[in-house]
Amino acid sequence: MSIDCESKIRKPSNTSIMKPQELCDIDDLATSLVVDVFLGFNTHKMNLEHKERYKCKSHLKPVIDEFIKNQSMKIAFDSFWNQKYIPDHLFKVSYKKLVRDHIERYMGMFYSDSGFRIEPCYRYSLENKVGAKVNATSHWKKDGIIKRLVGCVAELTEKEEDEILYIGKNDFSVMYSCRKKCAQLWLGPAAYINHDCMANCKFVPNDKGTACVKVLRDIEPGDEITCFYSANFFGENNVNCECCSCEKLCKGAFKSNKEQLKSGRYNFRQTHGRTNYRSPDKSKKLKEPKTPKKKKNVVLEPCTPNKNPEVDKGEALLGSPYTKIIQKTRGLDLDQASKSPEK
Q1: At 102, phi and psi to the nearest 5?
Q2: 47 in helix, strand or coil?
Q3: In what order do the strands lie in the sheet with 210-215?
Q4: Distance CA 242, CA 237 (A)
Q5: What is the pLDDT of residue 33?
Q6: Is 117 exposed, middle or buried, given 0-12, 13-18 or 19+ CB atoms closer than 10 A?
Q7: How far apart are CA 89 and CA 94, in angstroms?
Q8: What angle, 0 to 180 degrees and rounded to 10, lies between the N-to-C axes of helices 73-80 and 93-107?
Q9: 8 Å CB contact between 225 and 200
Q10: What is the DSSP letter of 223?
């Protein structure tokens, strides 16, 4: 049963760091007003019953077009802050700053110095071939920080996991922090960054409830900005990964294509051995292998005497509470994602 966000009365956080349900509601609102209007189709939402208040996306398109020209967030937000667009439970003075700040995070891609843009993506089967990606609009040098490409983090309790997350429906943006040992929601413009096994960027968390993106190698305008989620995000060893690198290297979901080519025809390197094969001479008797002699007074010892078996580090990382989370989500690890993938 889906949660009806508008039927519950909540008090806003006293700080700029949003609580999980607040982040869900405000992110759904911001993406519907900005990303969906810009792309022309609805992107993922945390509330499974989310419905935008506007009747037609074209009604809000002029707000974005005007912002691109004048770069005035005040004018744009004044247009958005209207009961025609904002749900009743968020259309309050106490929520106004949180809503404004999050809408500006998405409108930030239209600033002249943003260096990125959220664009349509028709690649991934998990999104039914209709989703979004983040492309660079300017040159980015190695070790640079894409400051406007940010995501917001909200820690989840086990109760909030059960109340908010639905397997395979809205668990697309959940991380697990090995450092804090808890699940975290990860929403905002940076949540549209797709995974790549040879990513050109990485997530850089901070202590303000947000995370930005650091460049790992030079990026040209038009290149997709990607991050490495984790080694097992798309199945064990990312066996179901559909990223561009896996396609080029015939790995992940594309591995079977390479194997079919090998099994479907002869390998030219095997031709010499196959054509020069000789049948054994049956007139010659084969010598029976000799049984090795046992050495006397020899006591066999264990390979690792007086040592306990080592704990599987993978099991340790996937232990409580992560075991529960991995059954419900694909559990992107922010701490792991902030590290460069091994080459």
Answers
A1: -75, -35
A2: coil
A3: 174-177, 182-187, 145-156, 210-215, 201-205, 226-227, 194-195
A4: 13
A5: 97
A6: middle
A7: 10
A8: 120
A9: yes
A10: P
Strands 145-156 and 210-215: antiparallel
Dist CA 189 CA 224 (whole Å): 14
Task: Name, in order, each residue with C-beta under 8 angstroms of 116's C-beta and a sequence gap of 6 or more.
Answer: 109, 134, 135, 136, 137, 146, 148, 149, 189, 225
Assigned token pair, 272: 């010499």
Token pair belonging to 299:
């006591």
Complete DSSP assignment for 281-310:
-TTSPPPPPPPPPPPTT-----SSTT-PPP
106's tokens:
């998405």
Dihedral (C-alpha) 80, 86, 89, 93: value to the nearest 10 degrees? Answer: 20
Encoding tokens for residue 184?
Answer: 């975290």
Count CB-CB contacts under 10 A for residue 198: 16
| Other CB atoms within 10 A of residue 160 CB | 17
Please name every residue paired with 116 in a beta bridge, in sequence order, or none if there are none.
136
> What tokens appear for 37 in the block?
């209007």
Gap between the Cα atoms of 336 and 228, Å rounded: 9
pLDDT tens, residue order, the chain (343 aa): 333 333 333 444 444 678 999 999 999 999 999 999 999 999 989 999 888 888 889 899 999 999 999 999 999 999 999 999 999 999 999 999 999 999 999 999 999 999 999 999 988 887 677 889 999 999 999 999 999 999 999 999 989 988 999 887 888 788 777 777 888 898 999 999 999 999 999 998 776 788 899 999 999 999 999 999 888 888 889 999 999 999 999 999 888 654 544 434 333 333 333 333 344 454 555 555 555 555 555 544 444 444 444 433 222 222 223 333 443 444 455 555 566 564 4
Cα–Cα distance measured from residue 44 to residue 112, given in angstroms and rounded to the nearest whole number: 26
On whether the CB atoms of residues 124 and 243 are closer than 8 A, the answer is no
CB 135 within 8 A of CB 222: yes
Report phi then psi at 134, rounded to 5: -115, 120
